[in-house]
Amino acid sequence: MSFASYNLWLPWQDSGSELAKKFVDYESGIHWNQYQMQSGRTSINTNRIYNPIKQVKDHDPKGEFIKKWVPELKNIADNFIHEPWLLSKFNIEEYIKLDYIAPIVEITKTSREARKKIQLATQQKGYWDISKKIYKKHGSRKKIATNRIPKKIIDKKQIQYELNLGL
Q1: H helices within the chain, ranges in order?
Q2: FRET pair for 33, CA 20 to 30 Å: which of 16, 18, 152, 167?
Q3: Which 3 state secondary structure label does DSSP give 142?
Q4: Taking a C-beta distance cutoff of 8 angstroms, is the pair 146, 163 a contact?
């Protein structure tokens, strides 16, 4: 989501729909919230622009997942598994035989541009007021103090209803 939203500037809804088709454990109640959060649409969390190369190196250092699910890379040397296009700088014949596409964007450049765009957006008049309003409505995790409920309310169901509404 981060890559699609920040590096490619694709609409998060379109990317979310494509991802929903691919997840074997898809759950709309979980995934759509995550899509929005990872694409910076909630104003609740810090916008995170993930580097997919760093992520795969951190989470699959030996490239086992890659070799299993990307068959054209199953025989590539471990030192190129995370960035197979770099093989072209060392052995062009081997890279050509690999038949693997080069990156569609330069991650460092598009991430830097995305950070600039986000910074400009946060400097727009009214941005932080809108952000705070959204956070207050959807993101605050503060518990409602039950001692603030007026004494005249006796019905437990009514109390629970008002607590759930954040009254």
Answers
A1: 2, 12-22, 28-38, 52-59, 64-69, 92-98, 107-122, 127-134, 156-165
A2: 167
A3: coil
A4: yes
- For residue 37, the one-letter residue type is M
Measured CA to CA, the distance from residue 73 to residue 84 in angstroms comes to: 8
What would the two tokens of residue 49 be? 């622009």
The tokens describing 43, both together, are 């104003």
- What sign results for the dihedral spanned by CA atoms 111, 137, 15, 11? negative
List CB contacts of 152: < 8 A, sequence separation 6 or more.
none
The pTM for the full model equals 0.70
Residue keyed to tokens 């296009």: 85
**Length of the chain, in residues:** 167
pLDDT along the chain (167 residues), means of 10: 93 93 90 88 80 95 94 92 94 87 94 93 85 76 57 55 57
Question: Tokens 């990156």 label which residue?
Answer: 103
Q: What letter does residue 154 receive in the DSSP assignment? A: -
Coil, strand or helix at 6? helix
